[in-house]
């Protein structure tokens, strides 16, 4: 064979060999192997992130519940102000009745002050 013909056949062989190597390197099973390798390396870190996020979510839910409960308690206190005013009025009335009863028991009228006690 002559030199140019030999070069042409050599080029064909190298081209076919290069194409075969390229096909083997990019074969789907190789791609799946690389994907599996990537998942195996990154999965533990992703699992840790997931566990951290779940823990933070639980803590957040607890904090939200606490805040909602506190807001409810404050709202109930505000709503109770009517009752506190009523109790205050009743206490003032009871003190007045007590003073009146003490004054009556000592023989004084409620309008005149009791005599000073000598101590």
From TrEMBL:
Keywords associated with the record: Lysosome, Membrane
Protein family: Belongs to the BORCS8 family.
UniProt-recorded name of the protein: BLOC-1-related complex subunit 8
Chief location bin: membrane
Highest taxon in the source lineage: Eukaryota
Organism of provenance: Tursiops truncatus
Localization in the cell: Lysosome membrane
Gene name of the encoded protein: BORCS8
Pfam families named in the record: BORCS8
Keyword rRNA processing: no
Cellular component GO terms, alphabetical: BORC complex; lysosomal membrane
């Amino acid at each position: 064979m002559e030199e140019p013909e030999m070069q042409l056949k050599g080029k064909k062989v190298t081209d076919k060999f290069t194409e075969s190597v390229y096909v083997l390197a990019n074969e789907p099973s190789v791609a799946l192997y690389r994907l599996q390798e990537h998942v195996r390396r990154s999965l533990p870190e992703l699992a840790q992130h997931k566990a951290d996020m779940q823990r933070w979510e639980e803590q957040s839910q607890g904090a939200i519940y606490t805040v909602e409960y506190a807001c409810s308690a404050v709202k109930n206190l505000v709503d109770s102000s009517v009752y506190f005013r009523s109790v205050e009025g009743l206490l003032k009335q009871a003190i007045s009745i007590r003073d009146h009863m003490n004054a009556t028991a000592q023989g004084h009228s409620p309008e005149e002050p009791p005599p000073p006690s000598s101590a």
